[in-house]
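Form 12-C: Joint structure prediction
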Amino acid sequence: MRKDGSSTTGNDNDLEKCEAELKLLAKSGEIPYPVSEKEIEELSNECAGLIVPPELEEKYLNSMKMAYENLAIDKVRRMLHGQVRVFGRHIQYIRKEAGLNLSRVAERLGKGEEFIQKLESGQLNPLQVAKETISDIMEIFKINVKELISAIQMFLVIAPMVETAHVHARADTKMKEEEKIEDISIAVEDLLYGASKKDARKVPIPEEFLKNITEELQRRGRTDLI
Amino acid sequence: MPDNLVLSPEEFANLKDGDETAQLSFMRTFAPCIKSLVKRRFGLLDVDAEDIVAVALYKVIMNIHKFDPGRGAKFSTWVFQIAVNTARDWCRKNRENSWLVHDVEHISFDPEKVQEREESTKDAKLIWDAMSRLDEIDRQILEWDAHDVPLVQIAKYLRMQEGTVRQRKSRALQKLKAIYESISN
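Section 2 - Result
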């Protein structure tokens, strides 16, 4: 940059302006005074021997737990590369890969485990779920509206066929092998979806439903998901 | 730096991995200090300070992979800075106009002034966003500098040569300007 004298002067003026602006912000309290080692030492002395009461401990640990979960969900999402599954299975996949169990998701959603199980296995139509709950799910699993639309379209296109497929899956396995049944069901759903992929994009999603969800997300300030 | 607030490399790695014992001991050591820091800096009530501690702890974990102990920054300083920023954001949200209180001129319902104020808040937020995207040390240098802390002093805090700080400062300003321009468009 120094080779070009004229641009340097122009740039320097700009930088000075930028610096002046930072100083103004600092004055107005927008940029807090940085924490110094001296202040940390004072704090440490001040708080020596202080014990966090149990109820606060729970609150703090819960907050940290949520952060770890969100980090894990972010990681799964990066691995997904935009791949979408049938609505319930999509949620189930992210949940399992992120290492969250049913009861934890139930707790965060304020719903029963059974509700989530039903949603994941496709026994519940997401279009019939309250917009608040769908928005909660979208917030937890960071699902955006576009993804939601494809996931629901997938659900709608295979839903009529899934029931029969599940009956077959059940008939072919022993009664207690629930997990196996689930694996077979997922495989069957994937197959069904593969066969009807073309139709899925044409499945209409009620505009009212999408409008409600978008409004709800807007209200929560989650424009990143819209 | 007080010994109890220094994390050994193993403790830091464990905390990063989400080890429960590490979480508990980190929380027990830092939470009271964070609470006292935000109370003293922002004059907050216990309940509000506790909410801020919870959010700050959340942010620490969410950003823990961005903290690089090898670069000379200290973990505790980093944590407390997050806490202070969290408290500032909280105050901005919950006491909309309080940070302008010392500027009496601004507290007026003259529509022009109100708009001006809104714009300056928007601008401040943009600059703040740009600041948070800077390198940890660059950001610290600019923050100290904005508070008129002499470069010699900053160099001492960061254990750097004064010349290095001066050079980093001007580069940091350039970076900040570039980021600011890209996000304001």
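Section 3 - Comments
Chain B has eight helices and no strands. The CA atoms of residues 70 and 131 of chain B lie 22 Å apart.
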